[in-house]
Amino acid sequence: MCGIVGYIGEKSAKDILIDGLRRLEYRGYDSAGIIVLDDKPNLVKTEGKVDTLDEKIKDISMPGNIGIAHTRWATHGMPTDENAHPHFDCNKKIFIVHNGIIENYKHLKESLIKNGHIFSSETDTEVLAHLIEENYEGNLESAVENALSKVIGTYGIAAISADEPDKIVAAKFGSPLIIGLGDNESIIASDASAILRHTKQVVYPEEGEIVVVQKDGFITKGEISPKDRIAILEWELEQAEKSGFPHFMLKEIFEGPKVIKDSIRGRLIVDEGISKLGGLEDVADELSRIERLIIVGCGTAYYAGLVGEYLLEEYGGIPTEVEYASEFRYRKPLLDKETTALIAISQSGETADTLSAVKEVKMKGVLTLGIVNVVGSTIARETDAGVYNHAGPEIGVASTKALVSQLAILSLITLMFGRQRELSLVMGQRIAKEIYELPAKIEEILSQNDKIKEIAEKYKDYKDFLYLGRKYNYPIALEGALKLKEISYIHAEGYPAGEMKHGPIALIDENFPTFGICLKDSVYDKVYSNLCEIKARCGKIIVVASEGDSEIKNIADDVIYIPKTLEMLSPILTVVPLQLFAYHIAVMLGRNVDKPRNLAKSVTVE
Ligand code: G6P
Predict the structure, then answer these.
(1) Domain segments of the chain as ranges
(2) Which pLDDT belongs to residue 74?
(3) Which of 220, 289, 347, 472 is the most exposed, fewest CB within 10 Å of its CB?
(4) Cα(69)–Cα(83) distance, rounded to whole angstroms?
(5) Residues framing ligand 1 (Cβ under 6 A)
(6) What CA–CA distance (Å, rounded) separates 585 from 582?
(7) Which residues of the chain are modeled with pLDDT < 50?
(8) pLDDT tens, 93-118?
(9) Apex CA 394: angle with CA 473 and CA 301, to 5°?
């Protein structure tokens, strides 16, 4: 949510900042702005996308080697030129870009206005620029420190001063920020995709830390570039590029087989029917005492958690509850710290609600675990232990490959708990063996992409959809509906197939198609009957079915067959055709698939 980029070095800051903004645009894309310091500050801000900003600045000479830039997802104030970042002080000397929310901005703004400050936007961020000005005595770092001490809220910021053009001051609290250290240049960004092109050496500022970034390194807590703070990025540049695909989303769906391989690499021992999760070894003793798991997440990550609940209870032998992180944190849950663990699932590792749920239970002494994709992200660092997805950067705003890897990791965690409890060796071996087969099975589904596109063409003009599934595939019905809503803006509802007759069936007629997940598993007959009820009301039906099921054709208008697997692992396969269906419809409707309206990739505000 909001992309920040800053550059200081010997190259043209303008080019590097615009390239960085393009790579971060998936985080927010309603307005953008840039400031480059030359003899004078060159500031340009605009409503609209990075392309609009680029168009506005392409003929402006900005030879400077230091600057900051921002792409916004509006919270306070409409997306307008004035509300776009960077924001500045009364003298237009101090400039700041910010990701997060300043909660006490109204109060601060009132007292700053009383002191004579003149505001030019409706944003909470502008308060920071004036607060820094108020505290400025020739040292930007101290001014930022004093200003932030008065602030309640979350921030990732980068600030520069025309009077000190040799530094960018960066600070972080609850919003992501990474500093890249190149050869006589440093790049600040809210995620690694804007840094990868320049360097793999990075520093992750800690919560509340203020860092002075210079072209030849950084200063933090009085120390110059401490070596033990430097980490190496594992991601490759190609992973953050489209590589010939028309959209990141399609590329990321097609990465499914690789993502499974990367998520399970070195973590499965088939002969012993166990998983080995290095990131959980340090808490092995605590885990052996756990009698209750709580999974929290938001959006697609929450649905991964719902599948986890079925997995962990049926095969892991451990009572599990799943909750939206945004609800959990306000519920005052009763937790026994000796026997409860919380699993936070988050692709970005920065989602504000998920992070708050982690902090909330940590305060109560509960063990916290993460299933996180972004290495070094806040949730990854806040949790006591965890498992990284190793899925590579996910750029499409609507999550796809991350879900596939979250499900694979939940299967590994299930194996871990299960084999420590009641799960037999034979069953453990079967599950482990079958997990290995999944990449090839996803390939088989992906090879039907053209057929799924044809089906999408038939259904693209419908205004409403119902998605039905049961047991392990009930969460996938929810996810299928979410994907369609998110990227095509078509109304879609996901429902447990058995509940359909308690309400949604009233909606069904020939204009309200249903997408069913009806596999040859323990609930086949039940879901089949539910789909018959739709058929009897003239509803069109698309079904994801098991290979070889000819009976399903009696009721389905269109069928997508998928390879057989264990029922518990089937969500990893069924989700893929649903992702492709939503993708093709969105493309056919001319939607901005990778950057759907109003959404943001990582939601770092409550
Ligand atoms: C946003 C994204 C979703 C994502 C959710 C949770 O809403 O648009 O695709 O599932 O955040 O994100 P996380 O990074 O915590 O998995």
Answers:
(1) 2-233, 248-446, 449-588
(2) 82
(3) 289
(4) 14
(5) 298-301, 346-348, 351, 354, 397-399, 599, 601-603
(6) 5
(7) none
(8) 999 999 988 999 999 999 999 999 99
(9) 35
Tell me the whole-structure pTM to 2 decimals: 0.86
* Topology adopted by domain 449-588: Rossmann fold (3.40.50)
Taking the CA atoms of the chain, what radius of gyration do you get in angstroms?
Answer: 25
Give me 408's structure tokens.
């694979």
Output the CA 298–ligand 1 centroid distance in Å.
6
> Domain 248-446: which CATH class?
alpha beta
25 alpha carbon – ligand 1 mean position (Å): 15
Distance CA 602, CA 574 (A): 25
Would you state the pLDDT for residue 152? 94
The yes-or-no answer on residue 601 being catalytic is yes
Place of tokens 């190149």: 182
Residue 39's pLDDT is 86
> Ligand 1 atom 2: the closest Cα is on which residue?
601
Query: Same CATH fold, 449-588 and 248-446?
Result: yes
Write down the catalytic residue from 14, 45, 540, 601: 601
Which CATH number is 2-233 given? 3.60.20.10
Q: Catalytic residue at 90?
A: no
CB 233 within 8 A of CB 195: yes
Per-residue model confidence (pLDDT) at position 236: 81
Distance 211 CA to ligand 1 centre (A): 28
